[in-house]
Structures are given as C-alpha cells and as structure tokens.
Amino acid sequence: MEVNIGLLGCGTVGSGVVELVQKRSEMIARLTGLEPIITRVLVRDSHKSRPVVFKHEQLTTNASDILEDPEIRMVIETIGGIEPARTFILQALRAGKHVITANKDLIAEHGAEILDTAEQVGMDVYYEAAVGGAIPLIRPLKESLTANEITDLKGIINGTTNYILSKMTATGADFDEVLQEAQDLGYAESNPASDVDGLDSGRKLAILASIAFHAKVTLDDVDVTGIRTISATDVAYAHELGAVIKLLAEGTDRDGNLSLQVRPTLVLKDHPLAHVSDAFNALYVRGDAAGDLMFFGRGAGSLPTASAIVGDMIEVLRNLRMDTALRVRHLLLPHKRVRRGQGEPTRYYLRLTVRDQSGVFAQIATIFGLAEVSMETVLQKRSSHETAEIVIVTHEVGQEQLNQALTTLYATDSVLTVHNVMPVTGGAQ
C-alpha cells in the first residue's frame, strides 16, 4: 500500500530526504508494510536544476497543491525559518496530515502551539532532525528515558562553533581567521551570528529542555553567550591548564527550578566532551535511574539530517499501519520554573590585564576574599613593561559571589581589562 507524502522545500536537506527515500524505499516498505511516495514537492523555481530528478508534475510553487490535497497523508517541512513554515504546518495538521519538520527555530519558539494543535486534531508532529542532525536525541528523551527524572543536560550542539574552537585549539589561530576559513569551506554561514553568538545552541537547548524537564521553554529562557570574545590567548591558557574551550549548552533541573545556559566553557581533558572535535556534536544526559549517558555524532549536513527525518517518517508509517497517533504526548508539569542567572556553583576561569606594579595581586586577592571567592590556580605573565596578565581559576563559587568580585574588579584602577570569564567543568566536579 502506498502512502503519499508532500515535501515543503527542496534545498540541501529536502534533496537529502528525497535521495534517501528513493534509496531505501524497498526496505522501508518491508519494515512498515507501507511504501512512501513523495508525490508533490514545493519549490520556488520549478525549472531549477536539482541534485535529484523529479517528474515535472511532482514540482509545484503553490503550497496549497500539497496542503489541500486529500490524498497526501504526511507533510515533511524543510523550508526553515518561522514563516511561512509555521502557517503551512498548522494548515497541514488541521487538514488531517501528519507533520515532520527539521525546523529548530520554529519548534523552539512555537513548539507548544504546534504540539497543542496536533493533539487537538489527533495528528502527530515529529522533529528529531531539529536537534543534533543524525544523532537520536529527541526520541530517547521522549520515549526510552521516560522512566527517569532527567536532572542534567550538557552538550556541544552546534557544529560550526565546535569546528571553529577545534581549529583554534589545533592551529593557535585567532577567531576571525578561523571563522573566515570556516566560511570559505561552507561550515559557517556568510552571516554567522546565529551560530557564533550562541543563538542556534540556545534554540536547540530550549527544545531539549522542554522535553527532558517537561517544561515550556523558549530561547528567551536561556542565558546565552557566544564565542566572539575567545582569543588564541585564551585557547593557549586553556591548554596550559589541561583543558579545551567548548561552547556548551547546559540545563539543570533542581526540584523544579530550571537553569539553562549556553556559554564558552573550559572543559578539562578528563571530561568526554573535551574530545568532541570539528563539526561533531555530543549530548551528555543524566537520569536518576539510567545514570550518565552520552550521545555523539554528526550534527548537520544533508544526509545526516535526512537520516533523522526519514527515521521520523518510518515512525509515522508505522502509526498509520496501526491506525494510531499521539502515542507519545508532550507533558508539561506546572511546577517547573526557569530561574535565569541562577546556575549552580562552579569553578571559573578569569583572564585579566593589570598594571605591572607591586601590590596589585594582593589587591585582587583581597577583592576575591571579601566576595568569598577562593582561588584554585593562578598564572601570571608579563605582557609589557607596564602591564601583566593574570589568569585565575577559582574554586566552586556561586554566581552572586562571582558577580560581586567582578563588579569590584571593573572599578579597580589597577585592573585594566577583564578579558574573559568562563566556567570550568570536568575534574573533580
């Protein structure tokens, strides 16, 4: 039995979906008892040359040809962005069509609306490809680990920034140089802001936290810091301290109080995330029953993303075969609250430029002592005849105490610049 599918968008990801469905259609039919047929494809230009071959009648520039076709049972959205993708998905659901999307921006901002609509009309929405490309993250959190109370998420979920930081570590080059190389190779967009400013990771963390912590979370709930301020100097000091710098997305649930952060972090080399390099992604998950788990793989690309989409498509086909839907509901617990700026105590790395004169370090030590911030490691090097550079790694400290110390440092004449402040993870933590 054939199942007709409509594809919205046929760019890099959409073409990968078509390629994979054509390649695996016989296997999918044997697995599910249903044969997937992509009957219509929404494109901007039906005459454009594409890496996959279509019959002319398959292509359309009018979304209604898909959304209003009663023969189409499933819609796959690969357009990206908020609109018109949101409108198309809601229209498809209300027309009785199951939906698969890879649209992280849309799910992060409007996921609750879309999932509520799907439940009201009895249709399924799958979005495994929205986070982590080929890495199975959404389904394990929604299904395999549901017997657990998930307390911690920590991971590298943006391949562009991980590539940049990995190259900076390997070559000693500075941020701007490596960013340009990443753009030349196609690893970074011409406008890289979403990636390097941490917004892409923030949206993905919002999606993961919504599922893992059973809470309504959007990007506005995530404290986000990007990697533009990371220099080759910071990378070198990290190496000296036995660490590498990674852009980590972290979420914790402590008795219903949620903390969600994306920020550059010194990851000591004894932590598994320290060894996730180049454009690879990884997510560390802690559950009260399962313990510690880590998922690893390629987080982007045409076929890795298509792999996740086609995996979702197979789930929809199985549901159609069994005449069922909404097997896994999206649970929201009302007592969950996001507490911004209230992360758990941790160690911190600070890099300062100070006047090279006697008594300055004693002054800094006094500032830290008054704020109840203790120092674990100190590195001091002369930068010029008049300045010195000091790197401090603290013992575990709360955000309030650290902010108190920083406020005083900023106002101290002998402290010329506070270059970077980053958390440290790994080691005895």
Automatic annotation (TrEMBL):
Q: Which reaction does it catalyse?
A: L-homoserine + NADP(+) = L-aspartate 4-semialdehyde + NADPH + H(+)
Cofactor(s) for this protein?
A: a metal cation
Matching entries from Pfam families are given as: ACT, Homoserine_dh, NAD_binding_3
What does the record give as its pathway? Amino-acid biosynthesis; L-threonine biosynthesis; L-threonine from L-aspartate: step 3/5; Amino-acid biosynthesis; L-methionine biosynthesis via de novo pathway; L-homoserine from L-aspartate: step 3/3
Tell me the residue numbers annotated for binding NADPH. Answer: K104
Q: Where is the ACT domain?
A: 349-423
- Family annotation (Gene3D superfamilies): 3.30.70.260, Dihydrodipicolinate Reductase, domain 2, NAD(P)-binding Rossmann-like Domain
What is one Gene Ontology biological process annotated in the Swiss-Prot or TrEMBL record?
A: threonine biosynthetic process
Give the record's keywords alphabetically.
Answer: Amino-acid biosynthesis, Metal-binding, Methionine biosynthesis, NAD, NADP, Oxidoreductase, Sodium, Threonine biosynthesis
Q: Which GO terms describe its molecular function?
A: homoserine dehydrogenase activity; metal ion binding; NADP binding
Q: Which PANTHER family match?
A: HOMOSERINE DEHYDROGENASE
Q: Which family does it belong to?
A: Belongs to the homoserine dehydrogenase family.
Q: What is this protein called?
A: Homoserine dehydrogenase
| Source organism per UniProt | Sulfoacidibacillus ferrooxidans
- Which lineage ranks, top first, belong to the organism behind this chain? Bacteria, Bacillati, Bacillota, Bacilli, Bacillales
